[in-house]
Task: structure prediction
Amino acid sequence: MVFVRNPELGKVKTRLAASVGEEKALQIYLYLLEHTQTVTQHVEADKVVYYAERVEEHDLWPYAYHHKKLQPSGDLGEKMLAAFEAAFAEAYESVVIIGSDCQQLKQEIIEQAFDELQTHDVVIGPAVDGGYYLLGMNRLYPDFFQNKHWSTDQVFTATIEDIERLEITYSLLPTLKDVDYLEDLEKPEQWLNMSG
Result:
C-alpha cells in the first residue's frame, strides 16, 4: 500500500515550501512520487495506491499494475488502520504500507520487509525524524494507530512500545530519511539551482 498526496501547488511538502517556495516543493514532490513508483514497480506484490484528495485516472500509477483507492477520512492513524483493515479483509497474509516521500527507499528494502514478515509478526522502517517510512504486519494490530501524535518525533518510539507491550516479534529495517526539508534531499544544491 502506498499513501500519496495529489500533486497540487501549495498542498504538498508545506514545510519544504517554506524554504524553497511552493513551485519547487511541488517539483520535488513529483520527483519523490516518480522515485516511489520506480522502487515499487518490480516488487512482486499486489499494489494499492491510496490518494489523499481524489483518485487520479491517468498518472504515474497505471491501472494495469495498481489498485487505486481514496484514503479514508480521519487522522493519519485512522486512515492507515482502515487501509490495513481493508487489506486483511481481502485475505492478504502480509501487508506493508509506505509513504511517498523517502528518497532513500529502495526496492530491496521493500522486498526485505516482506522477507522479514516470513519470520516476524511486524516489520518497521524507522525514519531519522522519529517516525517510520514503512510498516508491515501479518495481522491487524489496531493499537499501532491509536493514541499517537502523528508527524512528531515520538511515533516510532510509541509504536515500538506497543509492539513490546503486545509481546509480538518484530524486525527493524535500515533507518532512512523522509524528505521534509531541503537538507533531507540527497543533493539539495541541485534543487536550489533549478529554475522555477
